Each structure stands twice: as C-alpha cells, then as structure tokens.
Amino acid sequence: MNKLLEVEGLKTEFKRAGGNVMAVAGLDFHINSGEVLGLVGESGCGKSVTSLSIMRLLKGTPGQNAGGHVKFEGKDLLRLSENEMRKVRGKELAMIFQEPMTSLNPVLRIGKQIEEPIRLHLGFNKAKAREHAVHMLQLVGIPRASEVMNDYPHQLSGGMRQRVMIAMAMSCHPKLLIADEPTTALDVTIQAQILDLMKRLKEERSMGMLLITHDLGVVAEMCDRVVVMYAGRVVEEAPVKELFANPQHPYTQGLIRSVPKLRQKVKRLESIPGNVPDLSHMPQGCKFAPRCAHVMPECMTTEPELLAVGGEGRKSRCWLTQQSEQKGGSAV
Amino acid sequence: MGRYALQRLLGVIPLLFVVSVVVFMFIHLIPGDPARLIAGKEATLEEINGIREQLGLNNPLWQQYIDYMGRLFHGDLGNSIRSGLPVSDMLATRVMPTIWLTLFSMGWAVIMGVFIGIISAINRNKWPDHVGMITAISGISIPGFWLGLVLIQIFSVELGWFPTGGVDSWSSYVLPSLTLGAGIMSMLARFSRTSMLESMREDYIRTGRAKGLHEFIVVGRHALRNSLIQVVTVAGLQFGFLLGGSVMVETVFSIPGMGRMLVDSIAFRDYTVIQALLLLFATEFILINLLVDLLYGVLNPKIRFDSK
Questions:
Q1: Which end of chain B is more exposed for a tag (fewer CB within 10 A), N or C?
Q2: Which residue of A99, A107, A121 is in closest CB contact with B301?
Q3: Sheet of A307-308, strand order
Q4: ipTM
C-alpha cells in the first residue's frame, strides 16, 4: 500500500515565558491511502497540536514547528512556501474541527462559506460553485439543501453544522481528511449519524483519514489502525483489532480498562492514577513511568524507543514489552 | 431585515414624543416667568402681558404643547429672544457647516482608524502595531485646540495651502476636519485593533485558513465583518456628539456652526434658540442610534433574525 502521509520526527514547541516546551516531541506515523488512522490519547497529549502542525495552522497559537518532516504524497509540507501550502489546504488536505458551533462564520451565509473553497480550488464560476455546494449538502444528508444555502449558522443545529463542515471539507475531493474530535461536541445519536456519514464518504471516495479522538468507542467503530499518544509522543501503534485484543503498552492497557463495559458489573470504574505530566516538568525517563503500575528502575532514567513488538505493524515504547519480546515471552 | 427595520423605526416614535415634551417643558422649567424673561428687564407690565398673550402662555399646558407641536411641523421654532429673527432661519445657516465638518471628520477618522486597527491587529507586537498604537495614543492625548493651532501655523501660515478659517471653500474644511477627527480616529484605531484581535482568535478564522483562503480574505471577509459590530457602536456615538457641533474647533477655525451657536445662546440666555438646539441634538442622537441599530442588523444576521 502506498503511503499517503508520512510524519517523521515531527516536533512542535510552545513559546512560554520560562523557555519553550515541547508539545509534540518527535512524532512518527504514517497513513496509507484509503485508510483511517486513529490518533488517541488524553486531553493535552498533543493530538490537536499534531493535526494543526500537519496543516501548518499553528498561526494564532503559541505553537511553532521545531523540526521533522510531514510528507504528503512525497512532498514535505513543512518545506512548502505559504503560497504552495494554501493550494494544498482545503484541496488535497481538508480538516474538520471539534466545535461545529463556532467553526462556521456567524455573519456569512452557509452557501457562501461552502462556495469559498470550491471557487478557490476548483475554479468554478458562481453558478457552478453554488450547484456543487448544493450537491455537497445533499451528499452529507442535509434536507432542503438549496434553502440551507441561504441560512446562517445560528439557524442550524450542532449536528447540521458539523454536516456543513464535512460538506465544506469534502467539497474539493481531498485525498486526506483530518478530523479533530469531530463528534465530541455532539449528542450521542447525532454522533452515530456523523460517524456513519464519514465512514460512507470515506469509502465512496477512497480517501485517507486521520481521526483524532479520545473516545475508544469511536476508534473501534471507525479506524483501521491506531496510534496512541502520550505526552507528545507515540507510545503504541497497532491495527485496531489487535490493539483492543492485546494492548502492549501499560498506558494503552489503562485506557482500555477505563472504558465501562456493558456486560461486566464493576463497583468502581478503573482509572489511570495521576495526571498527564506538565510540559515544562517532564519526567526524565519514560514519560508514563510516574503513573505506571509496572514501573522498573530503568523506566525512571532512560526513555525507551518506539520499537516493533508483538506482531505485524505493531510498535510500543516500553521497556517491559521490549524485554519480554527479547525473551520471547508474552508481553506484560 | 424589513421586519427588523420596521420595528426599530416604530421604536423611535415614543422616544421622539418624550423628547418633544421635555424640550417643550424646558421653557416652563426655567425659574421665573418666561414672558418676563423674553420681554427683558426693562419691559413694562403691558409689554409682558402682550408677549404672554402672543405666545399663548395663558392657555392650559396641553393646549400650549399642541400649539408648539403644530408650529414645529410647520418649521416654526419661534424667534430668537436676542435678535428677534426666526430661529429656523438662524439654524439654516449654521447646520450645514457643522454637518460637513462632521462628515469629513468622521469620514477620514473611520477609514484611517479601522485601517490602523487592522494593521496593528495582524502585526500584533511588531513594529507596525507599535507605530499604529503610538499614533493612536498621541491622537487621543493631544488637545484639539493645540493641534488646530499647530496645523494652522504649518499649513496656513507657513505653507499657505489652506485658509486659516471660515467656510468659504471646501479647502477650509481640511484642517478643521483633521483636528476634529484625530481623537476619534485614534479611539477607533484602538477599538478596531482590540475587536480584530478578538475575532482573529475565533474558530471560524482557523476554518477559513484550513480552506486554503488567502490571509487577506481571512482578515477582510471573515474577521473584519465580525469586529465591525463593535466599531459601529463607537463610531455612531461619536457621530452623534460631532453633530452637536464642536465649540473648540469651530472657535479655532472661525466656523459658523452649531457648537458656537449653542454657547452663544447660553451666554445670552436666548431660550428659544437653546430650546431649538436641544430638540435638534436630541433628534439627531435618536436618528444616529436608529442608523446604528440598522447597521447592526446588516452586520449581524443573528440580531435581525432574533427580532422575529
């Protein structure tokens, strides 16, 4: 399978008064074309910053790129000029955001906002752009599409607005869609509808997708492969089924254990003790060590590498899994 | 929009009524007998009674109000106590210089103020921002009379480009407009900078950039329109104040406008003129507010839809 997006050693730092801190500290992953890659982790682990770094949309945030490569179909997005990057954004690489309520401009009609990228990237005239926009709205399941074109965002519900965002993102046939928590702000029933819609569109158009979420249910439903992030690093990477069946990294195990299960009666839901470390006070060795139940002496001093373990396409950043791999035994 | 505009228009009617009552009562609220005031200190009792009869001051108050309103609708604002001339004629010569001065001052102040605000906002904490904000702070701090005199010294006396005063030609308005607009321009620059910075932080700005739009369009189409709502409020208020005439600028540049007219009429206790000016200023403010409300509706669809 050919690689659509390759992220290599991506680093993003935040400017802070007391010195810069690394929000994304050397990220490596790739997305094959037509594949959905889930990017999972707790709030503050650098998921959204990663997506904004790939899109080069860090302007207006304290973040700035500090190295690495983001290769999209072979060309390094981080080396493109701003002009060249604008031609990629919205056309080949589209993005939808977590907050459908505020991601649309409140003073412009829906139609106008969808037509913008269509006219810009596909070079359609006004009438043709409008026709295409209506078609896109119908595609994402908006009833009375031509009437909604004249509506303002505040006249639509959250779910409808997210559909509009999807229509807008898909309007120029992107090869990769980055969806940053696309369903987090929506009701559960609407969540399911939006996920179905994204799945359908992805299959119809054989588009790659980077799905950022902290919801493991969404991951199980949507993704082919999963990258688990912790403190700005990849800690585990695996095909989705294997990740849930046999998680390697203690952090992933904790995440999966903390999801409530329907058939199991438990008095208390499991949780991972402690908090995500502060970016300016990172532990010296493994960043998860202070919260890890299996912590060993070397975990406190040296950070493990992200290495292949336990099967095809699987990687883990943990001393324990790597040691048991060497011994030929099972992990943790 | 039509419905919203109609609502706003209808809302003006009760306001205008209240204003007319207050202004009408003005002459009755002055301590003492209006007829005696108008007649002057040396008038005889007969003269005073004559004036009282002539002005209908013996009629019941409601009758007087109806008469007053009737005269108003015919453009009769009474006669000046001081000169005896019809107030409407006096106003006619004074209104236009003030209106032109207001329009020119506001015109350049709004354009420059918003422009500086935008440039400062998109170059936040860089040198264009510093230049813009230093300009703005200077504009607010420099007193108008001083700026006016300096401008006259440089551009009229030394260079001879513009007249030192009067309203004989359009060029006479240049220096007064610069003087009067400087403070407003500065205020608008600061306001638009702040509200632009606020808009630029919104999620839809990020959406615009994610669509691949040029930064110019992101700023001009998406951020600016949202931040103009606040700017319109400030500009509207200032517009109202300026229409009342600026005593300072009119004095420095010898412009026969309404600001000086008001000061003169107060100095000479010319109550009918004061009354007419009060009515005019209050009405102007109401109309400007109406205009601002209508602009809100144009700029912010939520406002005009909420009125339904």
A1: C
A2: A107
A3: A93-96, A176-180, A208-213, A36-40, A225-230, A233-239, A315-316, A307-308
A4: 0.86
